[in-house]
Specification:
Length: 327
Amino acid sequence: MNYRQLGSTELHISEISFGTWAIGGSWGGTDDRSALKALSRAIEEGVNFFDTADVYGEGHSEELLAKATKGREDDIYIATKFCRAGDLHDPTSYSYESVRRFCEASLRRLGRERIDLYQVHCPPADILRSGEVFGALDRLREEGKIREYGVSVESVEEGFICLQYPNVKALQVINNLFRQKPELELIPKAFGQGVGILVRLPLASGLLTGKFTERSTFAADDHRNFNRNGESFNVGETFAGLAFEMGVSLSKELSWIAEGRTNMTSAALRYILDNPYITCVIPGFRNVQQVEDNLRAANVPGFTRSEMARLHEFYRQEVRDYIRGPY
């Protein structure tokens, strides 16, 4: 496992880390036994960083991480997120009192005294502009409840707003072969300011595994069903903002990336890892097999300059204009 420094912080984290949305809920059925085995396998392979949120299974993914990392709290870093358990648009949800309650609830579920990276969970841009939430986070950091803080954003614009606040140490962004916009200016600027970059949804909700067809279906409690067109939250969180059928068609056009790189999953993750400005990629998982599949990306060949140019042109000509929602 390779490790990269999280911006200007003291944290050195595995370049392939994992997000825990899928084991908490909203990705179809969950199986705690399989999830715990998968977490154990990831840790065995050197993964030392996991991303979660208080709303993933209403805190269930935090509880699973507590079980998986018990006794290793100093070695395994956890990032969690807050604000979506309250009224996302109400400024009082971001007051010191509210943020402290969110934080203390997560600490109880995690069984920890301190959160390594505490992130605002995709708040409205107006909340970021006001800056009150960052004052609350500064207080929690001074009190020792959090080590560092950052923001999970939906759009490049929101990312640039966050970079105006010097104590924001990490940005979590959607970046993949279908969502290349953050690579142009936001990610390099963040790197230059010592802000770490966590890349979520690197497989575009599974589109970039190449396993779906136009006839693929998803369970009723899977966001790839109930949020396919942004019915429940930002449409960009599902299939990178693409209409499903179009995403399947576009993924077929990218099948060539798997040549010499095991499969499309490894290749799509390798694309992210080839960017030196990115700290880590955080794919999701539900079982040991998915953990092992994702970890293979660390050892497959990178993309050549001509291949990168081909991928960037593909995005500009065939993908960019069809992304829905702010990005």
